[in-house]
Amino acid sequence: MSELRQRPTATSNSSNGPVKEPHSRQQSSNDEIDRDHGISLLDIIRVIVTLLIACGGLSYYMTSSESVMWGYRPWYTRWPVVKQWVQGPVILTPSQLSVYNGTDTNLPLYVAVNGTIFDVSENRMIYGPGGSYNFFAGRDATRAFVTGCFKEDLTADMRGVEIMFLPVEDVEDEVMTSAQKKIRREQELRAARARVEGAVKRWTGFFANHEKYFEAGRVVDGGVDGEPWPLCESAQKQRPKRSAMVEQS
Ligand code: HEM
């Protein structure tokens, strides 16, 4: 009834020419249809969120519950890393570090290389008790990372490790002055130190960039003193021989 009352009459518009029906019943029903079929921002958000959830769920299923982002695991999506970031780096002496060797399952599992502590808790199979590399847990055994002597070299004492890359002098009648030999020795020593540094860097990089591990802190008071650590037997055996080098050149 109210619509009827509001409809303009023919007489009221007769003086202004032909009758127009701008807001006719036809127009308002078109508006309703538009409103029904229009896509609002909320609809778009709903669709995007649904797609993201579905995609994440599929990834979770396909990656055997490993990741909701198809293997991409930025640090802020890993709870232990976020927790560590909030708490700040751990600072441990070698004896404090030894507790984190996997024996106490309530504590994280730590490995240290060149004074940097890495959390390897996600790989208890390897570093935990009974694991193939458990001897690296709860200590800084940088020397063993370079020499491969897993029994003798579980220490951070790197003094003299470079010897493993220096040739064994097994040629007696070399035609060289002692000055020439000294220069060569110095060059070889520099190269050997660079190789040790390279090996240490590779291992720190391995743990720092590993998708399951992360940096947890630093070892302090791990200074070395006393007699230099002797080169382990297997590293000694792997040293190059001067005679072989002379033959090659
Ligand atoms: C300088 C010598 C070596 C060092 C420092 C070293 C160190 C390591 C480390 C730290 C891991 C654990 C990697 C991870 O966290 O995923 C590992 C794994 C492994 N390494 Fe070595 N490694 C050495 C030599 C060797 C050699 C010579 C072999 C073979 C005979 C070997 C066989 C393996 C195997 C099979 C794994 C996998 C372990 C597992 O799944 O239980 N490694 N190595």
Q: How is this structure best described in words?
A:
With 249 residues, the protein is an alpha+beta fold. Helix content is 45%, strand content 7%. The chain is built from 11 helices and 4 strands; from the N terminus they run H-H-H-H-H-E-H-E-E-H-H-H-E-H-H. The protein has a 4-stranded mixed sheet. A hairpin with a 2-residue loop joins strand 2 and strand 3. The protein is elongated and about 115 Å long. The chain starts with a helix and ends with a helix. Residues 1-5 and 7-20 have low confidence and may be disordered. Protoporphyrin IX containing FE is lined by residues 123, 126, 132-133, 145, 148. InterPro entries: Cyt_B5-like_heme/steroid-bd, Cyt_B5-like_heme/steroid_sf, MAPR/NEUFC/NENF-like. Residues 8-17 have a biased composition (Polar residues). Belongs to the cytochrome b5 family. MAPR subfamily. Residues 92-172 form the Cytochrome b5 heme-binding domain. This is Cytochrome b5 heme-binding domain-containing protein.
Keywords:
249 residues; Cytochrome b5 heme-binding domain-containing protein; binds protoporphyrin IX containing FE; Cyt_B5-like_heme/steroid-bd; 4 strands; single chain; alpha+beta
Task: Give the proportion of residues in helices.
Answer: 40-55%
Q: Helical element count?
A: 11
Helix and strand sequence: HHHHHEHEEHHHEHH
The low-pLDDT segments are 1-5, 7-20
Q: Gyration radius, to the nearest Å?
A: 37 Å
User: Order of strands in the sheet with the most strands?
Assistant: 1-4-3-2
Tell me the overall shape. Answer: elongated
Mean pLDDT: 86
Spatial separation of the terminal alpha carbons: 111 Å
